[in-house]
Structures are given as C-alpha cells and as structure tokens.
C-alpha cells in the first residue's frame, strides 16, 4: 500500500529538537534510522505514520567506544556492518559480531542500524539475543533527559518497547565483561542467508580451566513475544562442568521455557525442538572458544 | 560438414553488457507519454457470487479517469478453453481474481480509488485441493463449462471439475501385474510453487479512438499467440491488435498467455486514447498471475527380479486453479512421459487437470515434467532398493536407447540419455560412500533421469536483412526472456553469412514487422527459430551470391563466403565485402532480405483414447542430474554438497550459454526441492506472497555445480541442436530426494524437503522403530 498524501519528514540536528518535534506534532509519528524496517512497513504493510523524524542528522548517535570502565558503548545509529566489522566487537564479543553479520545481506547491513533492530522490537531481531546474553543496557533520551534500562526491561511485546513516543534510543551499553567470557550466537533458518531467524540462540559463559561454568546467560529469539532470557536453562548449567549431556539438558529446559507460536514459517513444536538443539550446540560451541567450533548452521561463517 | 566459425563457440552473450550495467529497459520500466496508471481490485473470496459492486466512491476520487468492472469488459479468453473473463463476470473463483480496475492520473490516486471499490459477495463452496474438487458430488466451479469454446483435443470429466482427462493405454497392465515378481504402489505430491521472475508483471495498452486499433506493450513470451488470443476474445481481426515486446526480466512460463494484458486492454477502452499501464507489485504477481501445478501422483509398477520393468500405472491429479489456462496441455504433455524414459510394455496413465479455487496454474519451466519425475524417479530408487539392485543398474536395464519404441508409440532416435546417466553419476563418485561430519549428520547420493518433449507441431519464421554497410538485422519473434536466444540466433546468422558476431543486430520485437513465431516456450526456439534464421540467412546469402556473380565475373557455385566477404573459391584475392555487393547493386541505402521458415511436420495427432502418436515431439531432451547431500538429523536441514547435471543438448551452439542454462535451472530446481511452497490456507488465502516467506534458493544455498554437456545430434536440428531451456530443473528435486533417502534410509514423498518436514519425518520413523 502506498500512501496517498505527501509525507512530512523532519531532519532535526539534536535530540532535544527531535523530541520537541514529536511533542508538538503529537502521537502517530515515527523515527527513521536506516529505514530497513520502517520503509518496508510503509510500502508493504500498510503502516502510514503521520510524520517521520529522521535521526541521521543528529550528531554523536553512531560509533563504537570502549569506555575506561571496560564497558562498550554502541551508538544507536551504528550500522550492522560497523558492528560486524568493528575490531573492538570482534575481539571482545565475536558472537555479537556474528549476530550482526546474520542480518539480511551486506547491502541491508550497510543501512540497518543496531538501534533500529532494538527499537523495532521484533521477536526475531538477530542482535537482541546476543545483547541480552551480554546483559546490555539501553540509553534512552527524551525531553526530560536521559535514562538507562536493562535490555530485558526494554522489550515489551512484538513491536513494543518501554520508550515513550518522544523518546530516542541513543546507545547500547555492554557492561564490562569477565575476561574469560565466551559466547555464541546461532541463527537457525532454512535458508543460508536472507532469512529471518526461525530460532535464535545466544549464550555467554564464564568458564574456568576445567570447563566449570561460573556464570551462564542464555537468550532466545523468535520464540516468544519478545527476545527472552532462559533462566531455568541457565540454572541447569551454572556451577556445573559443561558436558554434552549437560548441554542437552539445558537445551531441553530452554525448549520447555520458551513460548513459540505457529505461523507460516514454522510450527511452535518445531521451534521448540530447535531451541533445544540450538541451545545445546551454542553451549558446546562457546565452550570450545576461542578454538574452532563444531556446530555450524551456516555454510560460511566468519566468527 | 563445413568448418564452423562461430557456432559451437563459447562467445559472451550479446546482451550481457546492457544488462549488467542496468541500461536495458524492461517492460516494467516503460513509461509512455500521457500514460495513465492502472490499479486492479482483486477478489477477496475464493468462490462466490458477486451480488453488488459499487464504484461510485472510486469514480469520484480526484484524478480518476475510469473505473471499470466485468460489465464493461464482457470478454473471455483462454489457451484451449475460453473460460477466463477479463474481469470477473458475476462470480469469482479465487482470491486474487481481477474484479474491477481503475485508471488514474497517478499511481497513488489509482491505489486509493481501487480501495474505494465496494464488492459484496455470496459465498459458494470452495475447494483447495484437486482431490477434493473432483470428489463425486463436488459443486462445479465452472457451471457453464459445457458451453465454453474449447480446442478439439479437450476431453473433460469423468469426475466433477476435471477440465481435461488424458489417457495413455499401452499393453495390458493387469497382465503386467501377473507377470511381475514385485509390484510396488506409492503416492507422491508436489505443492504449488511460483515462477518468481525477477521482473513482476506489467502491461501497457492504448486504443486508437479513430481506427479502434489496440497497441499493447508487454513482455509476453508468445506475442503472436497473445495477439491472437486478445483478438479472438474481443471478436476483432488480428490486424486490429499490435504487440510491442520490450525486454522481459524472466518469465519461466508465467508471462505467456494473458495475465495483466486483459486488464490493461479493458481499461484502455475507457481512457479516450491515452495509454494505460497496469503494473503488478510482487504480492499481486504472487496471487493473481500464475503458479505451477500442485500435483498428486499415484504410481504403481510391476518388475521382474532382474529389474526388467513390466508394467506401470499412474494417476496424476494436476491442481489447475480457478481457470484452465494451460492446464489441459500441461496435463497432456506432463502425464504422457510421466512413467519415465524407460521401456515398459504395459502402461496405463490417467492425467486429470482439475479446477480448484486457488490461483491459476499454468506453464512453468519444465511443463509438467518435474512433477512426474519427482514421483517416478524416487519410485525407481525404491524398486531398486527392494530388489537389492544398484539404482544405476536398474536404470541401465530399462533406459531408452536409439531405436526403442516408446510406450506412446514413437520410435526414438538421437537418445543421449545413457551417456547423461553415466557422466552425471560418475561426476559425484556414485558408489563411493562417505560418512557425515558428525554422527547425527548423514550423507547420501542420488540421481534422477528425465526426457522432455517439446510443443509440436509449431512454426517459426524469420527474416535476415543485409544493408550497404554489411550490417545484418535478424527479424525473429523469439523473445529474449533471459535464456540467451539473441546470442544463439546471432551466432546462427553470423555463421551462415560468415561475418563477425558484432555485425548482427536483433530487431526489436513488434508484431507489425516481425514474422510469425509460435512462442518462446517449451525449449523450442534454438531448434525451430534456429532453423528458420538459418534458412533466412542462407536465403539472403544466395541472393548476395547471385548479385556478386556479375561483379566478380563468376558463377554462383564458384563463390564462397568468409570474413564478411564473398570471393572466388580458387582466387581468394578476388573478393568483395558483402556490404559493397549490396551498394553496387542497390545503392548506398540498399537492403537485401532473406526469409526462412521452419515447421516440424507431425505424423499422426495424439490419439485421444490411447495417447499414442508416432511423432509426439519434434525432438526430445534427455538429462540426468545427480546430487550429494548432508542431512542433519537433529534439525532436518538438508545441505547440498555438490550437484552434477548432464544434459543432452544435441549440439551446443554456445557451450557457455548451455552451462548457464544448466546452472540456472539447477538453482531454480534446488529452491523447489528444499524451500518453495506457495501456501494457500483453508480460506483460500495465499499466506506467503512475498520473498520474506516464499523462499527461493540464494547463491549460498547452491553448492558446487558440475554442468556436463552431452551432444547426441538431432538430424533435423540446426547443426544438430535440440533444446535446453526447461530440463535444467526437471530432475533436480527427484535427484535430491533420492540423495536424502539414501542419507536417511527412509523416503520422503512430499515436497519441499524443508527442515521442518524432514525433521518430523525422522521423528515419526524413530517413533515407529521404537514401537
Ligand atoms: C531484506 C531485509 C532483510 C532483513 N533481514 C534481517 C535479519 O536477518 N535479521 C534481523 O534482525 N533483521 C532483519 N531485517 C530487519 C532490519 O534490517 C533490522 O531490524 C534493522 O536493524 C532495522 O534498523 P533500521 O536502522 O533500518 O531501522 P528503521 O527501519 O529506520 O527503524 C525501525 C523502527 O525503529 C524505530 N527507531 C529506529 N531507530 C530509533 C532510535 N534511535 N530511537 C527510537 N526509535 C528508533 C523506528 O521509528 C522504526 O519504528 C531485514 C530487513 C530487510 C529489508
């Protein structure tokens, strides 16, 4: 569906100005980042925002910065391609780079932003599970100033977040991580590329020399109304030596606690089964890091 | 044969540069002066009477020039059954059927106005599978079927909604079952898929208010057939219609017959001479143009212990969708060779083309062969397994060879099938077993053989012009649908006139000036149009030779052509460039024209009771494809490791283009094997009409491909050539299916082999073995 009336587009130069526009014009507008979700929703899914506020002229919203306290700040307008190729990300969290590399195609990733992936809040957003497993926070700015939320509190439902209409997602903050942290993201989809996750599983583990799990985070995509953590599955492995058998048990637990739906892509039962299999594989892969991993769901993967 | 200079050479496609640089203008790109924008209103019900249409609000929308409904376009058309209205006539038969149309000054106004057309329906019982639609007592989807104008080969019934019943009767299958040591019956199915050509559908039409002449700009794959179908529907002479064919961005069968043309033409009668464009977006293309037949195949065979096939019986239920389109001929030409390229004494085939309340099915690259092959070739492997025989040996025992009398009564010649079988299986190291990368990942190999007929009899005509500069124009009605015909036909003309390829130009396709051609379908063009262009080039060459005789003081037999010149055979320095011959005789602006025509003369027509014909096809294409796969038992995901495809092309006029066709066919076949399924729910709605959820294979889903060209020359073909466009995807799913069965030790009968389907099949088997 194409919209019949001309669309009003604003290009503010600051966050304050952007919020002010929304305050003034009222509800029904949309922010625009890379446009890879928004423009398609408008052209093909009948979405017709009253107006659009383009954020690309607002300074300091993109870029990746290693902070003094060991945390990593990723500006909301940083593209997926930047995340995927960033030396800092690749070195510290290769599985986060992998999750960004799983999005669409290179052409899409040159436009798509990490903030857009979060703000759009689809259950299958590829970068969300990795960020949840890293216990990332989000910075949100509005007329009243800035606030920080856990990513877990940020997602409220499909397409819904904790942001007010005039609020802008400015950055994603990954807290300082244990030096031994290893992780993995596995996107499961029938096609090798250009496909949405039927299931996405991210894990982040802190293992000691004997593969004992000091900390475990498991996050799932595409199997509940929002990307979710799987605390019961985490509990299965915490403080345990990670074996194939244990990974399988954690997978079974994750399969039980996820809440998938059936749609044209897949049945809920199949998604559940794949959560089990992918959780097991992600855990085993993570445990083999930084060495070469056994389970690959992709013909070509770089991280 | 004389030395060939350019035929047989791997020259780069003549249209490569304009296409890779984006210079090429396709039908979808076309903008005409004073053009109006058309938008279609589609049926929202699968089967219903239209009780009321209100166009008032739409008419009043600013910028709207015309709003039309079925009442303004009381015409019907169809290839062999005239059942399809330009716009719905009081009733709709599928969701997506054009009901009304709007022409407006811009696209947004057309869109907005189309949304204001109100249609009220009274629902009727609807059928979404061919088996349901032909059950005794099913309501007729076409209640006026008996009264439709039809081709004389149409045999309808015996069940409800069957618009064509094809019968093949050879020997006596009952006797065959008694003679056999093993009798095996199975059932396979193939779902609805779509062509998904890169360029969606569009058509532009204009009616000249004074003469009433209709001009249509459309990337149709058979402009002369489309012209005739439109003229016939409108009840006007063919001369009243002109088709101009811009470049086509792929069609794979979906751009033959009439799709958006009727809507554009109907609107053009209401726009006071202004041209109107009707352009479908991707979703509209998915729901309202054409799909490939879903098909249920029942197959039963009797074999001797040593593998000799004795009898085969098949029933094929082709889901035709709401209108007949090409269903009758897909049913005939897909069912006839469905028992496979094997010697079988007792054969009985029943093909039923069945109306359903789904998008219209029709031609799709392969024309019914992939559906039959999916069943037959896996069935052959099951037979081999039960006999404890190697699958290649079973084929070798029964496979068609030169001189065989095929079960449809035709003596076969130039059969390169055996060579394709041997080469394709060798290329994947058939017989060599390898374990999977992990215990739960299994490896397997498989292959499948096919033969494919071409539409017969058909005609192609061509013209070749030579001007005073020695430049050559080829007038041919073959449409460049991406298959490379402009390169092949240029090579043929260049060969016969002995000029460099750069001298050849393909004339734009306009039915006012281009000679008749039946269609760019059925892999027929290289053979038919190749022959016609060759004859036209020889014709003009003879004329040039005659003109050159006095100039070179020679007799015709003493002349020869090379390097763009005509010369004396024993005094090669006595030479004239062919352009100079034209100039000297006719002046600087002179043009010499040659004409050529080719029709394959058919013997007896297909017998309607037995399906027999002594010449069912001008030529046959033979192929074997072989696949190696890896199946992940924990996820059901099938990953292809390599695929080899050996195709008997008769003679490769351009080996590079042959390899391209084979690789493209494989990529398309892989999509249909692993991913593609246009899902229609129990309300008749297409659930995945976009590339988000309709999954074609991407470049990363395609493994290492090994194209193999086999040349078993066809004496009638140009330089021995047959055809190649369609077979590239025909055996692909069956080859992959056999490889998956080999990997898993169990067979999957339904396509696609999506991870989820394979996963549940594995689970089910596990449960069975446990119990
Ligand atoms: C062909 C294709 C393939 C794709 N494949 C994938 C895939 O594999 N995996 C995947 O996860 N996604 C995929 N996507 C979806 C999309 O690319 C991603 O979600 C992307 O990250 C969105 O970012 P964007 O900058 O384009 O967002 P936009 O489209 O600009 O915005 C998306 C939404 O977020 C809001 N928004 C954006 N930025 C902000 C901000 N800073 N503050 C507040 N609100 C904001 C917008 O108002 C809008 O509602 C694909 C899209 C396409 C077209």
Q: Describe it for me?
A:
The complex is a heterodimer of chains A (303) and B (771). Chain A has 12 helices and 14 strands. Chain A has helices at residues 15-25, 38-44, 80-85, 87-92, 94-101, 106-109, 114-120, 127-133, 151-154, 231-237, 244-257, 268-288, and strands spanning 8-10, 29-32, 51-54, 64-66, 72-75, 137-142, 145-150, 155-157, 160-161, 168-174, 181-188, 199-207, 213-221, 228-229. Helices cover 34% and strands 23% of the residues of chain A. The longest helix of chain A is centred in the C-terminal third of the chain and has 21 residues, at 268-288. In chain A, strands 4-5-10-6-7 form a 5-stranded antiparallel sheet. The model of chain A has no long low-confidence stretch (mean pLDDT 93). In chain A, β2, α2 and β3 (51-54) form a beta-alpha-beta unit. Chain A is α+β, with helices and mostly antiparallel strands. In chain B, strands 3-7-1-14-11-12-13-22 form an 8-stranded mixed sheet. In chain B, strands 9-17-16-15-10 form a 5-stranded mixed sheet, sandwiched between helices. Chain B has 3 domains: 16-23 and 458-599, Aldehyde oxidase/xanthine dehydrogenase, molybdopterin binding domain (Aldehyde Oxidoreductase, domain 4, 2-Layer Sandwich); 31-124 and 198-250 and 255-288, Aldehyde oxidase/xanthine dehydrogenase, a/b hammerhead (Aldehyde Oxidoreductase, domain 3), CATH 3.90.1170; 291-455 and 605-770, Aldehyde oxidase/xanthine dehydrogenase, molybdopterin binding domain (Aldehyde Oxidoreductase, domain 4). The termini of chain B are far apart. Chain B is of the alpha+beta class. The chains are: A alpha+beta (303), B alpha+beta (771). Bound molecules: flavin-adenine dinucleotide. Residues 30-38, 40, 55, 76, 102-104, 108, 111-113, 115-117, 119-120, 125-126, 168-169, 196 of chain A line the site of flavin-adenine dinucleotide (FAD).
């Amino acid at each position: 569906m194409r919209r019949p009336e001309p669309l009003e587009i604003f290009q503010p130069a600051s966050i304050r100005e952007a919020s002010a526009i929304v305050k003034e014009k009222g509800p029904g507008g949309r922010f625009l980042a890379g446009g890879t979700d928004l423009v398609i929703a408008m052209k093909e899914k009948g979405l017709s925002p009253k107006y659009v506020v383009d954020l690309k002229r607002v300074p300091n919203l993109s870029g990746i910065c290693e902070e003094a306290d060991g945390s990593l700040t990723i500006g909301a307008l940083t593209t997926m391609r930047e995340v995927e190729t960033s030396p800092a990300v690749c070195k510290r969290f290769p599985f986060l780079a992998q999750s960004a590399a799983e999005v669409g195609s290179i052409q899409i990733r040159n436009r798509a932003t990490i903030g857009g992936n979060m703000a759009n809040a689809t259950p299958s957003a590829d970068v969300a599970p990795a960020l949840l497993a890293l216990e990332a926070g989000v910075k949100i700015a509005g007329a009243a100033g800035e606030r920080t939320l856990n990513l877990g509190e940020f997602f409220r439902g499909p397409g819904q977040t904790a942001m007010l209409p005039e609020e802008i997602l400015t950055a994603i903050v990954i807290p300082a991580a244990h030096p031994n942290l290893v992780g993995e993201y596995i996107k499961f989809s029938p096609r090798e590329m250009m496909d949405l996750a039927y299931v996405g599983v991210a894990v982040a583990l802190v293992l000691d020399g004997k593969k004992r799990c000091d900390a475990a985070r498991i996050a799932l995509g595409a199997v509940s109304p929002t990307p979710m953590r799987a605390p019961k599955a985490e509990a299965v492995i915490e403080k345990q030596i990670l074996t194939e058998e244990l990974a399988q048990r954690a997978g079974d637990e994750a399969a039980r606690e996820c809440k998938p739906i059936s749609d044209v892509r897949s049945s809920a039962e199949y998604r559940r089964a794949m959560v089990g299999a992918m959780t097991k594989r992600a855990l085993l892969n993570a445990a083999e890091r930084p060495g070469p991993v056994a389970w690959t769901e992709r013909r070509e993967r770089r991280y | 044969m004389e030395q060939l200079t350019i035929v047989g050479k791997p020259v780069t496609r003549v249209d490569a540069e304009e296409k890779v640089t984006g210079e090429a203008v396709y039908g979808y790109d076309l903008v005409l002066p004073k053009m109006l924008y058309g938008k279609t209103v589609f049926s929202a019900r699968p089967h219903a009477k239209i009780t009321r249409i209100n166009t008032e609000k739409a008419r009043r929308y600013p910028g709207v020039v015309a709003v039309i409904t079925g009442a303004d376009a009381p015409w019907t058309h169809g290839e062999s059954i005239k059942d399809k209205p330009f716009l719905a006539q009081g009733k709709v038969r599928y969701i997506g059927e054009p009901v009304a149309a709007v022409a407006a000054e811009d696209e947004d106004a057309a869109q907005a106005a189309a949304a204001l057309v109100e249609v009220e329906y009274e629902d009727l019982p609807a059928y979404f599978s061919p088996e349901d639609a032909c059950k005794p007592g099913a309501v007729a989807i076409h209640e006026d079927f008996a009264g439709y104008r039809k081709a004389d080969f149409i045999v309808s019934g015996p069940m409800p909604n069957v618009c064509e019943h094809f019968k093949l009767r050879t020997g006596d299958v009952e006797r065959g079952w008694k003679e056999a040591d093993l009798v095996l019956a199975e059932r396979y199915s193939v779902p609805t898929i779509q062509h998904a050509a890169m360029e969606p559908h569009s058509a532009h039409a204009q009616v000249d208010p004074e003469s009433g002449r209709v001009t249509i700009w459309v990337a149709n794959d058979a402009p002369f057939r489309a012209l005739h179908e439109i003229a016939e529907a409108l009840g006007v002479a063919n001369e009243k219609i002109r088709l101009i064919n811009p470049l086509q961005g792929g069609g794979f069968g979906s751009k033959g017959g009439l799709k958006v043309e009727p809507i554009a033409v109907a609107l053009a009668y209401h726009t006071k001479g202004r041209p109107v464009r009707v352009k479908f977006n991707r979703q509209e293309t998915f729901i309202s143009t054409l799909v490939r037949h879903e098909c249920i195949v029942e197959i039963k065979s009797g074999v001797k212990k040593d593998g000799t096939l004795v009898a085969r019986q098949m029933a094929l239920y082709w889901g035709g969708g709401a209108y007949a389109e090409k269903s009758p001929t897909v049913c005939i030409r897909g069912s006839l060779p469905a028992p496979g390229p094997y010697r079988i004494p007792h054969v009985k085939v029943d093909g039923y083309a069945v109306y359903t309340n789904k998008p219209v099915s029709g031609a799709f690259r392969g024309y019914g062969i992939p559906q039959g092959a999916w069943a037959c070739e896996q069935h052959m492997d099951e037979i081999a397994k039960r006999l404890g025989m190697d699958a290649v040996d079973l084929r070798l025992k029964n496979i068609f060879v030169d001189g065989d009398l095929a079960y449809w009564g035709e003596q076969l010649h130039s059969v390169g099938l055996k060579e394709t079988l041997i080469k394709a299986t060798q290329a994947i190291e058939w017989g060599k077993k390898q374990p999977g990368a992990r215990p739960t990942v299994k490896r397997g190999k498989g292959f499948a053989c096919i033969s494919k007929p071409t539409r017969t009899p058909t005609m192609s005509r061509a013209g070749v012009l030579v001007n005073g500069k020695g430049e050559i124009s080829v007038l041919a009605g073959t449409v460049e649908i991406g298959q490379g015909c402009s390169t092949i036909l240029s090579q043929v003309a260049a060969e016969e006139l002995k000029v460099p390829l750069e001298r050849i130009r393909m004339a734009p396709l306009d039915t006012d000036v281009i000679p008749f051609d039946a269609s760019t379908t059925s892999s027929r063009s290289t053979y038919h149009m190749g022959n016609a262009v060759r004859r036209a080039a020889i014709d003009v060459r003879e004329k040039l030779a005659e003109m050159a005789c006095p100039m070179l003081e020679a007799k015709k037999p003493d002349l020869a052509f090379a390097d763009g010149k005509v010369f004396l055979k024993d005094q090669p320095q006595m030479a004239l460039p062919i352009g100079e011959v034209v100039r000297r005789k006719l002046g600087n602006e002179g043009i010499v024209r040659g004409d050529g025509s080719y029709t394959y003369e058919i013997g007896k027509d297909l017998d309607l009771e037995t399906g027999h014909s002594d010449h069912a096809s001008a030529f046959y294409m033979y192929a074997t494809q072989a696949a190696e796969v890896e199946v992940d038992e924990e996820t059901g995901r099938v990953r292809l490791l390599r695929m080899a495809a050996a195709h008997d092309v008769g003679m490769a006029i351009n080996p590079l283009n042959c390899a391209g066709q084979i690789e493209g066919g494989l990529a398309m076949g892989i999509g249909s094997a692993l991913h593609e399924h246009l899902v229609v729910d129990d309300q008749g709605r297409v659930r995945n009409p976009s590339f988000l959820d309709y999954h074609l294979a991407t470049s990363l889903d395609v493994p290492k491909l090994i194209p193999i060209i086999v040349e078993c020359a066809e004496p009638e073909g140009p330089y021995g050539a047959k055809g190649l466009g369609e077979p590239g995807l025909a055996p692909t799913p069956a080859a992959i299916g056999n490889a998956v069965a080999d990997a898993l030790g169990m067979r999957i009968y339904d396509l696609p082999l999506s991870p989820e389907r394979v996963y549940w099949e594995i689970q089910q088997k596990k449960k069975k073995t446990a119990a």
